[in-house]
Amino acid sequence: MNISPINQGLTCSQNAAVVQKIAVGVDMYNLTTSQESTQTIRGTGHIDHVGGVMQQMAVRRLTPVECERLQGFPDKYTDILPGGKPTPDGPRYKALGNSMAVPVMRWIGERIDAVEKGML
Question: Where are the alpha helices (DSSP H) in 23-85?
Fold first, then answer.
């Protein structure tokens, strides 16, 4: 389909008709397009707005191992096995939340060292 800019010299209603003819629906989830008319979601802040499209979504919590990997720690680093039992997730999340990312701290330390040695 060749989409050209809105024609000069046409009235607003004629321009709107031109725009209506070239409008397509785009489904970003499935990466498909459609020539059918589509509905618009208004920014009302309400999920139950009539005319809107809602897909089922669920938020998944990151596991402690995923959080350890994001922070640059080895897997099961915070699983200290108190009394020989696995550590509950709560204390592991707390320990990771109070920590600093290892790669970032290493980079900062290397930069400080380079400045001290006059390399930067």
Answer: 64-71
Q: How far apart are alpha carbons 118 and 98 in whole angstroms? A: 33
> Does this model's pTM top 0.70?
no
Quote the pLDDT of residue 15: 46
Report CA Rg, the chain: 27
Going along the chain, which residue ranges are E strands? 25-27, 32-34
Q: For residue 61, what are the CA distances in angstroms to 28, 40, 71, 95, 100?
A: 24, 31, 16, 16, 20
Tokens 């725009």 sit at which residue? Answer: 19
pLDDT-flagged residues of the chain (< 50): 1-7, 15-23, 48-51
